Structure formats: structure tokens, C-alpha cells
Amino acid sequence: MYNSFYPHYDLAGRIQHTKLDTGLSTGMPPARMSRVEAAGTPDFKQVMSGLVENFNAELNEPDNLLKDAMSGNGNVDIHDVMTAMAKSEISVNVATQMVGKVIQAYDRIMQIQV
Q1: What digits encode the pLDDT tens for the residues 31-89?
Q2: Closest to 48 in 3D by CA, of 95, 106, 107
Q3: Residue ranges covered by each domain of the chain
Q4: pLDDT tens-digit readout, 46-57
Q5: What is the DSSP string of 53-104?
Q6: Phi/psi zone of residue 72: left (φ > 0), alpha (ψ -120 to 50 degrees), beta?
Q7: Residue 62: partners with Cβ closer than 8 Å, 6 or more residues away
Q8: Would the pTM of this model clear 0.85, i.e. be above it?
Q9: N or C, fewer C-beta in 10 Å, the chain?
Q10: What count of other Cβ atoms lies within 10 Å of the Cβ of residue 81?
């Protein structure tokens, strides 16, 4: 009576295997043993400069949308401006937190005695 109520799933068959598996069950070689970084991997300076450029663009976006809305552009709504302002506020909060964490990490590194 109650057995028909509970669904029966083949959980072992539904497990998705990834590249990070050991390769024992799938015959696939493990990715952790043979991982090599590509030569085109960006360095820390490139990553940080890209983040700063994106941050600057997100800070300028609400101003540009507000100018378009005030000039009567039909494609821009006040809701778009408010959404862009909320996104830029979140970006500022995240950037502030990241700067604080970097400073904390630097302080910890400087406290290491050699």
C-alpha cells in the first residue's frame, strides 16, 4: 500500500561523473594527475586590471543610463537605472571587502618570522 507512494530512483545510475573522478569506474584517466597550466593563462596583474576596468564600467553605467532616461530615450526606463545603481552599489561593497581581505593577507604575511 505505501510502497507505491514512495518513488524509486536508481541513484547510482544518476550520478554524473566529472573529469576529477579517479577514473576507476569510467576508464577515463584522472585529470588531477596530468594537469598542466596552459601558456596563455593570464597572470595576476592582467586579472586585477580586468577587474578594475569592469568595476569602473559598472560605476559609470548608472550615470549613462540616467542621462539616456532624462534625454527621452525610449529604450531606457527608470527601472533600468535603479537596477544599474543597485548593481554598482553591490560592486562597491564587494570591492571594499576585497581590499580589506588583501590588506589583512598582507599584514599576516608581514608578521611571518623567517
Answers
A1: 554 545 565 667 878 888 888 888 888 899 999 989 988 888 778 888 888 999 999 99
A2: 95
A3: 43-111
A4: 888 888 888 888
A5: HHHHHHHHHHHHHHHHHHTT-TT--HHHHHHHHHHHHHHHHHHHHHHHHHHH
A6: left
A7: 81, 84, 85, 88
A8: no
A9: C
A10: 20
